[in-house]
Amino acid sequence: MVWSATTFPPPGSAEEHETFIKLQAKLKSYYQKIAADRNEAHTTIIVPSLSMNEAELRKISGVASYEERLLCLLMLLQRPRTRIVFLSSVQIHPVIVQYYLNFLSGIPYSHAMRRLVLLDAVDASPKPLTQKILERPWLMDRITKAMGDPDRSHMVVFNTSPLERTLAVRLGVPVYGVDPSLLHLGNKSGGRRVFKEADIPLPAGFEDLYSEDEVVEGLDRLWQEESGILRAVVKLNDGFAGAGNALFDYRPLMDYKQAAPNERKTKLAAALHDMRFEADGETWPNFRTQFREMGGVVETFIEGDVKYSPSVQARVNAANQPQVISTHDQILGGSTGQTFLGCRFPARPDYRLQLQEDGRKIAEVLSHKGVLGRFAVDFIVVPTPNGFQRYAIEINMRKGGTTHPFLVMKFLIEGGYDESSGIYISALGEEKYYLATDNIFDKKFPGMGPEDLIDALVYHRIHFHSQLQRGVVFHMIGAMSQHGKLGITCIGNSVEETNQLNRATIEALSKEADPEGRHQRLEFY
Q: What is the pLDDT of residues 217-248, one digit of tens each?
């Protein structure tokens, strides 16, 4: 079929949504066929577009290379009758593609390559990849040709937005992801409503706010109603990786807590300019503009000298079955400690089983509302004399920083997630752990290309070893040369082993940044 804008319903129209719902109805039988027969012929169209607020994405260094995080899905080529069409904004370096294909077990490289089609928009602009695709009828033609039978094809995306719905309709294939009309369930306000429905503890606060006056009113009510409150968090509904958060401090205003309401609110409004913003260079006037556009929440900042930031990853599969996939302890940083830097699998044994149960309840609520696909729920956990107090704080209705590390381990190590212990057990009976991050960074790293990186990791013996089932898997390799930024997943048989692999990786890369340090490796050449 040759693509033509006149053959499809207008984007965002009721007709488009109706067509999308009909396509989505095909997923259940499609899923059942693939699950029953690994030789079932099908095409997976991978569109790793970060279809989110552009202003928020600009706050993330090297964000264009986040598309590479879904390259781990190339390991689906282990199924001998699977074809993959992988889209990207710009061409992915061939060495990076080869790096992932070399992880395939039992499949010759040449066999996998015949079933892989790489297409790109030749567009490095900050627009979402899906928008770039829709703007290029020639690229749409190539996708249609490459995928073959639409009745044997489906899309996998980073997140679904109206753009992905339009692309699915124009390709005539379903997408394994939530209907964009339900995305509100996964923003900060929607998450608070879901937590209440699932009877999960959450911080005191207020959702569905849109104006400065509403922010001030929320801050004032928290100040008056929550005994001992010191700080609050103001969050954009659709912030990404913590970059849409701001920390409000009541302590400099304590003399005004008992003042008249108007005077109190005037002081609170003035103090909005003094908030600590998680994104570098953010200001209240700019933040306020974004808040008016997307809305947000105000909630209590959970205090504690010791606290943890775990998450539970879950999904509603194509058969509408809610499932818990994994738990993690998140590694946070940034100016106020709210930026996602990485994660450890699994979460601490003290609370991981409780998180599993919470995740199951939330997945059940979302499945009843029609949600489909993967999502993660973030928590804050604080030790108490009687155990731990937990607070659910966010639902990420998309693939996130905890998605690809678990997929990598699952693809590389045969085994399964044991819900009774919350640990991944390999087919050899070994417990498996990992530490993952998107934020290996050094100002000395820019200029290191994929060939340099891969040679270095092999030389320093940190590359993942399939027989030992331990080592380091790299992602976002394309960000290294321009941004000096890299992602890693360190897989081992203990927490300490993953920490050791992380330290060894940083040490090896630091040596590479020193001309004298890399001389010995290069001497061979």
A: 999 999 999 999 999 999 999 876 667 899 99
The model's pLDDT over 464-476, given as tens digits with 9 standing for 90+, comes to 999 999 999 999 9
| 3-class SS of residue 387 | strand
Name, in order, each residue with C-beta under 8 angstroms of 265's C-beta and a sequence gap of 6 or more. Answer: 216, 217, 220
Asked if 121 contacts 89 with a C-beta cutoff of 8 angstroms, the reply is: yes
Q: Does the model's pTM come out above 0.85?
A: yes
Vertex 437 angle, CA 240 and 400, to 5° = 40
**The pLDDT of residue 325 is above 90:** yes
Mean pLDDT (whole number) for 270-286: 92
Cα-to-chain-centroid distance, residue 191: 16
Q: Check residue 51 and report its DSSP letter.
A: -
pLDDT tens for 118-161 read: 999 999 888 999 999 999 999 999 999 999 999 999 999 999 99
Q: Are 209 and 236 in contact (CB under 8 A)?
A: no
First to last CA, the chain: 51
Q: Is 484 left (phi over 0), alpha (psi -120 to 50) or beta?
A: left
Per the CB < 8 A criterion, the answer to whether 374 and 404 are in contact is no
Give me the DSSP letters along 193-233. HHHHHHT----SEEEEE-SHHHHHHHHHHHHHHSTT--EEE
H or E, element range at 272:
none
Domains, the chain, in order of start with CATH, read 5-176 (3.40.50), 204-300 (no CATH), 310-522 (3.30.470.20)
* Continuous segment of H or E residues that includes residue 485: strand 485-492
Q: Where are the beta strands (DSSP E) in 334-430?
A: 339-345, 373-384, 387-396, 415-418, 423-426
What does each C-alpha distance from 359 to 6, 101, 210, 348, 371 come to in angstroms?
A: 43, 33, 29, 15, 14
CA nearest 344: which of 437, 263, 438? Answer: 437
Pairing of β 175-176 and β 153-157: parallel
